[in-house]
Task: structure prediction
Amino acid sequence: MLIGELAARAGTSARTLRYYEQHGLVRASRDARGYRCYDDAELRVVGEIRSLLDSGFALDDIRPFVACLRAGNEAGHVCPDSVAVLRRKLAEVDGVLDQLHVVRDRLHTQLAEAIEERTIRCQMTC
Result:
């Protein structure tokens, strides 16, 4: 299929596909006229890329998943390199959540103190 058809079927743009190709994630051959041609397997690869990007993965993190699909696996997350990326990403997300909990607790404390001070001031002036 040509780039426009792949883009339409994948729900993305031709520009995005060229970008993925520049980063070595999508493979295209060329026809006699020099147009990019893609086989059906690339639709699955693009779907995997988009799904992982939506989950917050960087393009470099996606490479093992694409390699896993290209190796003939049904899913990109079943290979050891993909599992390692998943573990690292999960640890990263857990770290961010820990930081957010600290910020949430701090904000909760500040809000409680602000309400208490306002209540005390109101009792003194009312």
